[in-house]
Amino acid sequence: MVATGSLHSVGLRIDHTVVCAGDNSNGQCDVGDWTDIIQAAAGADHTVGLKADGTVVAVGYNYDGQCDVGGWTDIIKVAAGVTHTVGLDSDGTVVAVGDNLYHECDVGNWTDIIQVAAGWGYTVGLKSDGAVVAVGVDNCGQCGVANWTDIVQIAAGWSHTVGLRTDGTVVAVGLNDYGQCDVGGWANIVQVTAGVAHTVGLKADGTVVAVGENSVGECDINDWTDIVQVAAGLYHTVGLKADGTVVAVGGNNYGQCDVSSWDLT
Prior knowledge:
single chain, 265 residues, mainly beta, Methylamine Dehydrogenase, Chain H, 3-stranded antiparallel beta sheet, 21 strands, 0% helix, globular
């Protein structure tokens, strides 16, 4: 699998070790000694790893306590926002640490959650019945998901939220200054991801679509094929191919797109 932070990219190998590329100014790429990882997530300047035993590790910027996950157990999924980290417990409840200025960590009463996503100052949860809940900053309507139904996957950008429906169509709410929410015509989508101002969708045939800001080529994915997973960072997009190799487009000022040598098999 692949994950993206603001200026770094993360890859999870089949042997459950992790590789990183990009900005390491806060130690967010210091994952070389991680083992037994089954999922990775990346925030603005931190990286989170879920271990096979349900515990969690994290490295990087920790000013707001977003890396204070050492006591977590029985976690089955993790998500990383800009300055907070979210964990889904095996019983469907949710835990969160880090900045709580906008109440993005106030998830203690959530139940029946099957997936979590984290944006800038807000947290989103997908419930087992296909409904969606959200807490945190809502200045752009990014938490306006109360009427969503039949959702099977969620993604959170900095100020917009994306939902994948059971029929392969996509919905989005929030800031739309670059057209990052213009996903109404998408079909046959099997996975979605959200960057700071762009949205990416993986189609069932392994091709990829994208809308939103494209100032440094982060949406230039029209020639991608055989993709099995996508991730979107601040101004870059990463795709995992079926053969375990990785492609990336967009801003590369910190080497966050230097993933061509990765082999995640």
